[in-house]
Amino acid sequence: MLIDMHTHTSVFSTDSNLLPHESLARAAERGLDGVVLTEHDVIWAADRAARLAEQVGILVLPGIEVTTELGHVLVYGVTEPFPRITDSKRLRDYCDERDALMYLAHPARDPGLRVPREAMELFDGVEGLNGCDGPLQNQSASSRGRTRPLPPIGGSDSHALHEVATAATEFEARIRSLDDLMKALRSGDYRPATLPY
Ligand SMILES: [Zn+2]
Ligand SMILES: [Zn+2]
């Protein structure tokens, strides 16, 4: 299944002019099976995301892109309203309490924000493919107590219509819910996928 793990809309991201139904219709047309809405520091209510999913006929799940002192962090597995955490260690605690996963977003975009090696241990993985940036290879997440970090994810980071579904993550498992997505992420059985226009 192809799921775009990183998308924005004009509803909650002021840097986007993309209406949700427009974006999702284009994503469906481009062959995606699902999309995770990852607005800046705001989580879509799960029932609202589900209503959109019904309208467009693909999976629509809530996630979030959190702004921290280490840069942007994609979080999956949280559905309640986000309390605006900006400290990466506090965000890690918050995610651990909820069994949520943290991926460092577009790690190569801003060289000034390069994350120190020891801080990489906060993340479960990194975004290795970003539709706005291409392949991002300059950081690899540390182990977080495992022998290997989770594999990199891919997402479009779409803020405008022409950016929709340029990148995604290809999962082996069938995903129909946020629980399924979390299981699939933890299994590590997935890889970033480019979707050329
Ligand atoms: Zn970002
Ligand atoms: Zn983004």
Please describe the topology of this protein.
Blueprint: E1 2-7, H1 20-29, E2 34-37, H2 46-56, E3 59-62, E4 64-68, E5 71-76, H3 88-98, E6 101-104, E7 125-130, E8 134-135, E9 153-155, E10 167-171, H4 178-187, E11 190-194
Parallel strand pairs: 1-2, 2-3, 6-7, 7-9
Antiparallel strand pairs: 1-10, 4-5, 5-6, 7-8, 10-11
Bound molecules: zinc ion (ZN) (2 copies).
Shape: globular
CATH topology-level name: TIM Barrel
Using only C-alpha atoms, the radius of gyration works out to: 15 Å
Fraction in beta strands: 25-35%
Number of domains: 1
Write the CATH homologous superfamily.
Metal-dependent hydrolases
Unreliable residue stretches: none
Named CATH architecture: Alpha-Beta Barrel
Count of DSSP strands: 11
Q: Please, how many helices?
A: 4
Computed structural class: alpha/beta
